[in-house]
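Hi everyone, sorry if this is the wrong subforum. Our group has a chain we'd like a structural model of before ordering constructs, and none of us has done structure prediction before. Sequence below.
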Amino acid sequence: MSHNSARNIVQPALVIIGILLIASNLRGPITGIGPILAFISDDLNLSATQAGMLTTLPLLAFAIFSPLSSGLARKIGLEPSLMLALLAITSGIVIRSAGSTLTLYLGTCIIGIGIAIGNVLLPSLLKRDFPNKVPTLTAIYVLMMGVGATISSSTTIPMLNLANSLNVTAIPDWAFALATTLVLPLITMLVWLPQTSHHTKPATDTADIDSHSYMWRSAAAWQVSGFLALNSFIMYAFIAWLPSILVSNGYSEHQAGYIHGILQLASAAPAIVLIPLMAKVKDKRVLSLIMTILAFIGITGLLMMPQHAVAWVMMLGFSCGGGFILGLSFVGLRTHNAHQAAALSGMAQCIGYLFAATGPIIFGSLHETTGSWDMPLIITAGISIIWASLAVKAGRSAVITHQLNPSDNLPSEQTSNPVINEL
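Answer:
Right subforum, don't worry. Here is the predicted structure as tokens:
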């Protein structure tokens, strides 16, 4: 094998490794805080609403900064932008771990900005550089997000106990535990560093998103956005408060942390199951309904029989992970081309993240008001029923199209879909 041939093989492999490592950083810095949220609240005197903000702030950052990420990539290049995302995540973790209330919230916001950039630009890099391997690499990519989140959720309690045994005094034990999550982004930055010499532009559908304002007047667009919004609302509410729910039902902090990790891993598992299945099942409404039913069973199971929490959490995680993949697929199924899909994706992500941001706050406030986790769980189970009704509408194959008649500003739908075969 010639030197050039070897280099041609090694370079894409390094890019794929970098992509998967970056993906592993796009959820863990948020989810890792859940198992030690009670310790942080006690130390800093945070109310349940204030504690819920620690999960809410990154979601608000997603909604605000996601639309700006493609502009950043156009100016400085895709690869340097992803390095900037890693730098934001790393610096946010450092600031968050300083130990005060101000730095806790400030660092959390900066982490959210870094993750927002990565969320938008990584799929673009994947689509541009590996167009023939998108389904397979997407499955692995989503799985790596879950693996990173699982590691983060499962290690924060052991790291907190380690800080206690080492008698760390410079910062609180919870801050030391959060600081240990620096390891993964630092390794990722080292692996990604060689790619920063490239300054390529993002894929066309990410770099040039038309406004398509008629999307906001389309019932179909709102159905897809609502489906993703309720999916994210449920997921992030449990990311924030599941460990506290489990501890209130007799689980130890260690057990709650591990089960929280199971939630993350279960949410990544549908990528392996659904992506090959999507091409075989024509009516996506069936799959969508299954996901919402699993969510309802998982939530009511936690409410009625918390002693079997592992089973309920696996159902809930699989449901939310599967719902997210299906919701993203609806963006392609309901649109004509990449530009329209990007416009719908932007709308859905904006609405989805803004609504999801209310989940941890509402969940925590209800608990604070009632003194129990029963009411938050009952209301979330009700939301899963609304989610099911949206699944039936959002999963249809009718395509959103703009009326060409200037006197008619409303969009219409048609049943033929030229982009289905591309998925």
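For your construct planning: The chain has 18 helices and two strands. The domain at 212-423 is CATH 1.20.1250.20 (Growth Hormone; Chain: A;).
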